[in-house]
Automatic annotation (TrEMBL):
Domain of life: Bacteria
Position of the signal peptide: none
Similarity section: Belongs to the initiator RepB protein family.
The protein's name: Replication initiation protein
Residue ranges of the TM segments: none
Coiled coil: none
Domain Initiator Rep protein WH1: 10-177
Pfam families linked to this entry: Rep3_C (PF21205), Rep3_N (PF01051)
């Protein structure tokens, strides 16, 4: 089955919100959740040059629907946002709103077969469940089909890729190379194939003009981002004209595809005090025993332990909870910070008395 290469995002409205690490992390989790919650539509594995009949049916179904919906839970937010302040309702609304105001323009076909330009936001709208605090997020189906085809659903710097590649030909060239770079290092195309995929039409008819104005500029722009490292390895002639071009490509973006059928590791984590998450019930009991001389219902004690928990996750952001596993532990760090916070509080109290 052949693919039609479409124009990549070349018009992005940031709105009045800034896009940074928080927004990018939420966008990546959103891409993951869309795949997880819509496996009847999404081809999650790395697509090869030919799709299976089952994948083709998924592809067609995805083209026919308008929206996709996924759910993000408090556990999802705890995983991607280490700071408690980033997980408040107001902060989450601001982060979601930033994605809502990120608009992407791309070429597509309407449901009745008319070629058109689609302008869509990364998020259509979202609901905040009153009882659970979970978020139901609604997104445009065609936009996300397009982004998954582009490979952005599996790259750690998804929004940065969209923003860094400003030139339309650099964007198109990135799509072309991205679709092949996971399978081979040296990628060969005929000059005519490249011209067709880059949608040049009658522009830059001679190879010298094509190479100077399109290929080299696109390569320089992509290389400058660190996303890929591209070189022209060889120009193969047919007679006196260059007929084919071989590129050497090093793809620096990871391809972490969602394995929909793999078994999930059993999550035994529990909540200890309000929102302090620990790896299992046994560790929770150890913490209760260690701090049994403290009044855990006291707002002051709670504040000290909450502050220590936030500081622990901020100091070592590999963790999303308090853990005490061989080779992977922040339990001692947490207790050390708690001791420091308690000492600080005692000193402050003694000074107030004096």
């Amino acid at each position: 089955m052949g693919y039609e290469v479409l124009a990549t995002p070349n018009s992005i409205a940031r709105g009045r919100y800034s896009i940074g690490e928080k927004e990018n992390n939420l966008f990546l989790k959103l891409m993951y959740a869309i795949q997880r919650d819509n496996n009847e539509y999404i081809i999650a594995e790395n697509k090869k040059s030919e799709l299976s009949e089952e994948d083709i049916l998924k592809w067609k179904k995805l083209c026919e629907i308008e929206t996709l919906t996924c759910k993000l839970t408090q556990d999802d937010f705890n995983e991607i946002f280490k700071r408690k302040n980033d997980r408040t309702e107001n902060s989450l609304k601001d982060t979601f709103s930033a994605l809502s105001n990120c608009t992407i323009t791309f070429d597509t076909v309407t449901r009745d077969g008319v070629r058109a330009k689609m302008i869509a936001s990364l998020i259509s709208h979202f609901y905040i469940e009153k009882e659970t605090g979970n978020y139901q997020v609604v997104v445009p189906a065609k936009l996300y089909k397009y982004l998954f085809d582009l490979g952005l659903g599996h790259t750690q710097n998804a929004l940065q890729v969209i923003y860094k590649l400003k030139g339309i030909y650099a964007q198109r060239f990135y799509i072309i190379l991205r679709s092949w770079s996971g399978a081979k290092r040296d990628i060969e195309f005929s000059v005519q194939e490249l011209r067709d995929m880059l949608q040049l039409g009658d522009k830059n008819k001679t190879f010298n003009s094509f190479e100077t104005n399109i290929l080299k500029r696109s390569i320089d722009e992509i290389n400058s981002t660190g996303i890929m490292e591209i070189k022209i390895k060889e120009k193969i002639k047919k007679g006196r004209s260059v007929d084919r071009v071989v590129f050497t490509v090093k793809d620096n973006e990871p391809r972490n595809y969602l394995k929909l059928n793999e078994q999930k590791v059993k999550d035994e984590s529990v909540i200890w005090l309000d929102y302090i998450k620990v790896q299992n019930e046994a560790l929770k009991e150890r913490l209760e025993l260690k701090y049994n001389d403290l009044d855990l219902s006291s707002p002051i004690v709670k504040n000290i332990l909450h502050k220590a928990y936030d500081k622990t996750l901020n100091k070592d952001n590999r963790f999303t909870m308090i853990q005490d596993l061989k080779g992977k532990s922040n339990f001692a760090l947490f207790n050390h910070i708690v001791s420091g916070e308690l000492l600080t509080h005692e000193l402050k109290m003694s000074q107030d008395i004096i």
